[in-house]
Design a protein that fits this description.
mainly beta; 5-stranded mixed beta sheet; 9 helices; about 10% helix; globular; binds sulfanyl-(tricuprio-$l^{4}-sulfanyl)copper; binds dinuclear copper ion; binds calcium ion
Length: about 650
């Protein structure tokens, strides 16, 4: 068969499949209403944006399946041969598995899961005393939360790029900010945000707005998506939604304490920060402050709300703040009514088309791009103009909008290649739109001959987040681009009703995007960042001195009793525990402290205690502890759960509970 003939057949076959799966993409110029209603049949996730589809009907192009587009990228192969290492790390949120995941890029291989919000049976997260202290417990010692929903993941910065120190992720479900230490890849702090429900957008700052010597992250900004009674909770306030409100929260990233909160109109969606540290912003899709679905969409215009960080913190220094309830956190008023004068305003809403979703900072530091969701557009906001407004040099804040580019249906998130181009996910069109920022600005300024859209490509299917290599840093290099697709449909072997999601990788080195890899991911990652491996330097052996309870050697192991409290100090070294037997009495409170004194890389031991619901691992030189009540008499063999040695199966000991 001639190449052309084969290619035509492939195109036809792929169009057939896409027509079946995604009529909107295959029908050519469709009306928005039709696109919306076809999309509507695909699942409830699509129905919300579809129900209020925009009036302007952009043409949906027919694009052949990417495999047949015939473009070759310059990023190289995604195949990592046995024994070779990936060139990039990807840090992925886990969604309602409540964890963080580490992937090797470009292969897409999952290398680690870092538990945070939810218990994890592999490592014993939520079982050991140390992890319970991080997660938070009720007065009876049980975990306060065993669920979570992690969406947005961002690393700490120094000089505009990641410093490899921390990764922050929000828990939307229980309004907690989770911090992961990147040296050991463990969660070390979790902060519950007061007054907040639906904690959604987060972003670390990139430098201090005032002090030039602080060129690294010291704050994390947190948005609130669900409006709730803030002042007090009683039968009046819960029943009267006029009393509902939202706050924007600033957290001290080192202490993991709330620095301040700001009352706002409407509610927050995603959050972005400027490279100069002066501005933080949140998209708002409910400036009307509604609580029902129609109410939340009544206003034609929503906003990207900009906070003047230095002014807010000066106001707090000057004592211009209040409190919410009995809480001692300073609260400033960033609602429009209180911020009309640019010279004193703490915040200003830049109008954008209704119900925007993502807001992303361009790596040159000049612009924020708001993705329209219900509007088929992206809005470009010039940050210098926002600063000019605060300085009284711009008469109308709407003039900070320097472009409004038509990208396609359902724009959710945008990323960048460092060469002036932006890439936006189109949820409804199941496409990525590549467009040029400066061209979009020129067109908006009046040059009608310019088409800023450079390329569109089909992705499989319904993409949400998108992130190119280093794209949230000043070192964006436009090599790889990840796209998180919410639906995978036919892309993988069927495994029952719950489908894997499809996180795809694209090569964006050329003019046209090239789809190069499908990675099945267990539900339900949202956001992720990808960066070169040189930016991280994880340690593989712990420092024993970091653990106050460490049992440094077998000689120091042993059992002590204080009343009915028994402490077992234990060590593991392949293939044995010391002690390998201990006795307690029925009803005793037992604490086992286990130090893995092996120093060999990758030599992890486990401690499983049958019928007591205990399992955890100890990595080389690590110490963990568990406390439980010996409420069952008998012999209980604790054993090593983590394969460590030829005699791993023999690595065990007995807990004898005498009645
Ligand atoms: Cu970042 Cu998924 Cu929370 Cu958009 S949200 S898709
Ligand atoms: Cu120690 Cu298996
Ligand atoms: Ca709205």
């Amino acid at each position: 068969m001639s190449l052309l003939g084969k290619k035509a057949l492939d195109v036809a076959a792929n169009l057939g499949r896409r027509r079946f799966l995604n009529s909107a993409a295959a029908l050519g110029a469709v009306t928005v209403g039709l696109a919306a209603c076809k999309e509507n049949t695909q699942g409830s996730a699509a129905s919300a944006p579809a129900a209020a589809a925009p009036k302007a009907a952009p043409k949906t192009e027919i694009t052949a399946a990417p495999e047949t587009r015939g473009f070759v990228g310059g990023a190289g192969s995604t195949e990592i041969h046995p024994g070779q290492l990936d060139t990039h790390y990807g840090v992925w949120s886990g969604g309602h598995t409540g964890d963080l995941r580490v992937l090797g890029i470009p292969s897409g291989r999952e290398l680690a899961r870092v538990p945070g919000c939810c218990p994890d049976a592999l490592v014993g997260w939520g079982i050991t005393n140390e992890s319970k202290a991080v997660m938070g417990t009720k007065p009876d010692g049980t975990l306060e939360f065993t669920t979570g929903d992690t969406h947005h993941v961002h690393c700490s910065y120094k000089d505009g790029i990641y410093d490899g120190k921390y990764c922050f992720v929000n828990d939307k479900l229980n309004a907690r900010l989770v911090r992961v230490r990147l040296d050991y890849m463990v969660t070390d702090k979790i902060l519950k945000l007061p007054h907040v429900q639906g904690f959604h957008g987060i972003f670390p700052d990139k430098r201090d707005p005032v002090d030039p010597s602080i060129n690294y992250t010291t704050r994390v900004f947190c948005g609130q998506e669900f409006r709730v009674p803030l002042e007090k909770i009683d039968n009046n306030t819960v029943n009267d939604d006029a009393n509902y409100g939202c706050v924007f929260t600033c957290v001290d990233s080192e202490k993991m304490e709330v620095k301040w909160q700001a009352r706002i109109d409407g509610n927050c969606d995603l959050v972005a920060t400027s490279y100069d540290g002066k501005l933080a912003a949140t998209n708002q899709y409910n400036t009307e402050g509604g609580v029902t679905y129609p109410d939340m969409m009544s206003a034609e215009v929503d906003a990207c709300l900009f906070f003047n960080v230095a002014r807010i913190e000066q106001a707090i220094k000057d004592g211009k703040f209040t409190h919410l309830g009995n809480n001692k956190i300073p609260v400033v008023d960033c609602r429009a009514e209180a911020n009309k004068d640019p010279k004193t305003a703490l915040a200003v809403p830049v109008p954008v088309p209704k119900n925007p979703h993502g807001v992303n900072a361009s790596p040159d530091g000049k612009y924020f791009v708001c993705s329209g969701k219900l509007s088929p557009t992206c809005t470009v906001i010039e940050l210098q103009k926002v600063l000019d407004w605060f300085d009284g040099k711009l008469d109308d804040i709407a003039k900070a909008v320097v472009a409004e580019v038509e990208v396609g249906l359902g724009p959710l998130h945008t990323t960048f290649d460092g060469r002036g181009n932006a890439y936006t996910t189109l949820f409804l069109d199941s496409q990525i739109c590549k467009w040029n920022v400066e061209q979009a600005i020129k067109k908006y300024a009046g040059d009608k001959n310019i088409n800023p859209v450079i390329d569109k490509i089909d992705v499989m299917y319904q993409p949400g987040h998108i992130s190119a290599t280093h794209a949230e840093t000043s070192a964006a290099d436009g090599v790889w681009m990840g796209v998180g697709n919410k639906f995978s449909k036919d892309r993988f072997l069927p495994v029952g009703p719950l489908h894997a999601e499809n996180d795809q990788l694209l090569d964006i080195t050329g003019e046209r995007m090239v789809l190069v890899h499908d990675t099945p991911v267990r539900g339900e990652p949202h956001d992720f960042v990808i960066f070169k491996r040189e930016w991280l330097n994880p340690k593989q052996i712990y420092n024993m001195e970091d653990f106050p309870l460490a049992v440094p050697s077998a000689e120091e192991a042993g059992v002590t009793r204080n009343g009915n409290k028994v402490t077992v100090r234990m060590v593991s070294f392949a293939p044995a525990f010391e002690p390998n037997v201990f006795k307690v009495k029925l009803g005793d409170e037992v604490t086992v402290i286990l130090t893995n004194i092996d120093r060999v890389e990758d030599l992890t031991h486990g401690f499983g205690l049958p019928d007591y619901n205990i399992q955890f691992i100890v990595n080389p030189q690590e110490t963990k502890s568990v406390t439980f009540k010996a409420d069952k008499p008998g012999v209980f063999w604790y054993y090593c759960t983590n394969f460590c040695h030829a005699l791993h199966l023999e690595m065990r000991g007995r807990m004898i509970v005498e009645s």
